[in-house]
Design brief:
Distance between the termini: 48 Å
Strand content: under 5%
Radius of gyration: 16 Å
Low-confidence stretches: none
């Protein structure tokens, strides 16, 4: 299997995934919304946190844990909302919609309440767009 053992390479990959998943506008929807990519991203951040813990950098590890809190994500929240609002009516069931929201919220840590709130925001945005 593929292995990265350099923290700077992990940081570079993390930054690239953040750009593709939350900042870039001209990204294939299947890449941006990939549940596989979201799980890889989640594992990557967990690996960065574990690395800092292993070498005794508990403050850096805690900084990453704090960074992961979805409530604190001002930039990514609207990116998730806007991306999913574009395809909301193509997702056939409430379960599929919820799963898509969870996939898009990774690598962040969130509660069921956060997911429910995000679904409400997406539905509001979708309704606005549909009314145009």
């Amino acid at each position: 299997m593929f292995e990265i053992d350099n923290i700077d390479e992990l940081y570079a990959l993390q930054k690239g995934l953040m750009e593709i998943r939350f900042n870039a506008t001209d990204v294939d929807w299947a890449v941006k919304g990939s549940p596989f990519l979201s799980r890889v991203h989640e594992r990557l951040v967990e690996t960065i946190i574990a690395h800092h813990e292993e070498i005794g950098e508990s403050r850096k590890a805690q900084g990453w844990r704090d960074w992961r809190r979805f409530e604190a994500r001002a930039m990514e929240r609207p990116a998730v909302r806007d991306y999913l609002a574009e395809m909301w009516d193509e997702l056939p069931t409430p379960e599929v919609k919820r799963e898509a929201v969870v996939d898009q919220m990774r690598p962040f840590v969130f509660s069921d309440e956060n997911v429910t709130e995000m679904i409400a925001e997406i539905e509001t945005e979708w309704r606005k767009r549909s009314a145009r």
